[in-house]
Amino acid sequence: MQRKNKTLGEFIIENQQEFQYSTGELSKLINAIRLAAKVVNHEVNKAGLVDILGAAGETNIQGESQQKLDVLANEKFKQTLQNREIVCGIASEEEDDFITINSQDEQHQNKYVVLIDPLDGSSNIDVNVSVGTIFSIYRRVTPIGSPVSLEDFLQPGVNQVAAGYIIYGTSTMLVYTTGHGVNGFTLNPAIGTFYLSHPNMQFPETGRIYSVNEGNYTHFPQGVKDYIKYCQKEEDDRPYTSRYIGSLVSDFHRNMIKGGIYIYPKSSTAFNGKLRLLYECNPMAYLAEQAGGRASDGYRRILEITPTELHQRVPFFCGSRKMVEKAESFMAQYA
Ligand code: AHM
Ligand code: MG
């Protein structure tokens, strides 16, 4: 069991040998994300001051032009990741195409690609509700020495070497996995240090919370409608509690701690749902499985889906193992 009060920096050094390639590069990469997280956290915390400091598109009193926070978060993460000799390419929910990063000697020696949703749930910012950053890391599949290519990004989620999120909530937390369980670190904003606060996070096997945008109920597939009715039925430990923040990171984080299921299904208006396989579902699915939970599209394991495009969407069922299995059993009746 990990000692609770160690810093993220200490934790990264101590656990470096757990990583199969163990060259220290992945540790440097997590360190870069840690740094960008602090910068973005600082910006997110100032969001309520927008009327004083200037709104997006305006120039503030210091003469700096203001950016929308999701654009700014994208820039901060890109800058931080580019400045290391580790990442050969970045794909972001904010960008149409992937970005190639050349190593200083232009020899394409960098081994990792990072996929990122820099500020997920950003529609919540104006109303002071939690948002998050989601990241996913793979080793490139094309040979070192050649430029990064699309196939380096279109890998199934099982190939991830690390994934995580930052939640800008009542506290700011960084939660991540390198395939050896899930650990959560809370930022002490006074000194800018993340401390291990949630070692070895685990989804309860089952729970009593379901998180789905029920406003879309009429457009949902029959299997999802039936599962929602099951959640609401007075029987055994039901009805369950409905909790939906509309911010994937926050809904996931709560469900991992308390036990629950998150569903963003396909619907008659959004045929593949809304969430992106590469930037949202794969990293969350990897975290869920590492924490003893489960993630599927209602039928298939998310991590085994071979992506065909960068911004591919996929239905998402994720959370406590038994709850996801139950939802899948309802889906199977109409397969
Ligand atoms: P975004 O990437 O545009 O922020 O959208 C993703 C967000 C998730 O965080 C959240 O779970 C979902 O969209 C909410 O969507 P909806 O408002 O349709 O329920
Ligand atoms: Mg998003």
Which key phrases capture this entry?
five-stranded mixed β-sheet; FBPase_N; EC 3.1.3.11; binds 2,5-anhydro-1,6-di-O-phosphono-D-mannitol; Fructose_bisphosphatase_AS; eight-stranded mixed β-sheet; Fructose-1,6-Bisphosphatase, Chain A, domain 1; alpha+beta; cytoplasm; carbohydrate metabolism; 2 domains; globular; 335 residues; binds magnesium ion; D-Maltodextrin-Binding Protein, domain 2
Please, could you describe this protein's structure?
- Its EC number is 3.1.3.11.
- This protein is α+β, with helices and mostly antiparallel strands and 335 residues long.
- The protein folds into 2 domains: 8-198, Fructose-1,6-Bisphosphatase, subunit A, domain 1 (Fructose-1,6-Bisphosphatase, Chain A, domain 1, 2-Layer Sandwich); 209-332, D-Maltodextrin-Binding Protein, domain 2, CATH 3.40.190.80.
- It has 9 helices and 13 strands.
- The chain has helices at residues 8-14, 25-45, 50-53, 69-82, 150-153, 222-232, 248-258, 277-290, 321-332; strands at residues 87-92, 99-100, 112-120, 131-139, 162-168, 172-177, 182-188, 193-198, 209-211, 241-242, 260-264, 294-296, 316-319.
- The strands form 2 sheets. It has an 8-stranded mixed sheet with strand order 2-1-3-4-5-6-7-8, sandwiched between helices. Strands 10-9-11-13-12 form a 5-stranded mixed sheet, with helices on both faces.
- Strand 6 and strand 7 (182-188) form a beta hairpin.
- The longest helix has 21 residues, at 25-45.
- The model has no long low-confidence stretch (mean pLDDT 91).
- It binds 2,5-anhydro-1,6-di-O-phosphono-D-mannitol (AHM) and magnesium ion.
- Magnesium ion (MG) binds at residues 93, 117, 120, 280.
